[in-house]
Amino acid sequence: MAEGGHLVIARELTRALQEAGHQAHVIVTPQNPFGQQASAYVATWLTNVRSTEGQPIDQVISLRYPSYAVRHPRHVCWLNHTMREYYDLWDRFSATLSPQGRLKERARRAAIHATDRYLLTHNVNRLFFQSNTIRERYTMWRSLEASVLYPPAPQRAYRCDGYGADFFLVSRLTALKRADLLIRALAMPDGAGLTCAIAGGGDESSSLKVLARDAGVASRVTFLGRIDEDELLRRLSTCRAVVFPPLQEDYGFVTVEAFASRKAVVTCRDSGGPAELVQDAVTGLIVDPTPQALARALRRLADDRAFAERLGAAAESRGAQFTWQGAVQQLANW
Fold first, then answer.
1. Please, are residues 224 and 280 in contact by the beta-carbon 8 Å criterion?
2. Which of 32, 63, 97, 238 could bond 102 through an S-S bridge, CB–CB 3.0 to 4.6 Å?
3. Can you give the pTM of this predicted structure?
4. CATH number of the domain at 167-319, please?
5. Cα angle value 187/257/157 (rounded, 5°)
6. % of the chain exceeding 70 in pLDDT
7. How far is it, in rounded angstroms, from Cα 52 to Cα 320?
């Protein structure tokens, strides 16, 4: 649960490439602390990706900042995200700064935009976005030519063991993931009696527990903390549906993992990637980002198990459209 989505994608893509007969390895590029972005770009630019142990490397596939700064004559970027603080989260980020800090960060933002634009148009041979949400962040750069390629679910032993009473949320517990919406939904009239399990760790863990207590729903919220793969698969296999209401998520593996477990996903209209994958009232439910709207959706699924099962079946079919073999065909065979 602690590993970021880009690393999960890197490892799964590596496995898929190996299964397709390629030799493939993960190279983790330098990651410097916030405020030292320039040195991260330079260190990545200088990283040797032309050969390993005396053998030439035929192609590189980069995923996110700053890995697309590596230099190789055959370079495909499957972009997860650049530094969001300087793109879609700029208003949120800059509002926390002093006037002097805002001026400094505005200059850094301009430099990063210029660097990213150059790298994604001149340093990369082919560019794919992992969602339309990501692509829309760069519409100001008309010179970017790219397609959307959704990542499949990680290769795990997903199953469906039924449709129990609990709703399930699994995520890093940060403000942008908005797990508080689920807790607040349980406190709404439509949420009365509903139960949920929340898995994951993060800086919002303690405040979410306080919120559940103060909202009077602590007895109906189970905080699991970080869980291993077996527990993840078990929870996915038995829940009524998966709740995933983040703000402008890049992609969100949780959605396709729920689909692979034959479970519907409840997400929000402004949730980004998950809202692209979910078809409302077909593979899940898409609601306004309010506790009341979320509670109504949960009540609908709780009161109608057959409806949850129909959505789950359609979700499984939708998820099956994304395969690692297909991803390899697009990323490596050109």
1. no
2. 97
3. 0.93
4. 3.40.50.2000
5. 125
6. 99
7. 35
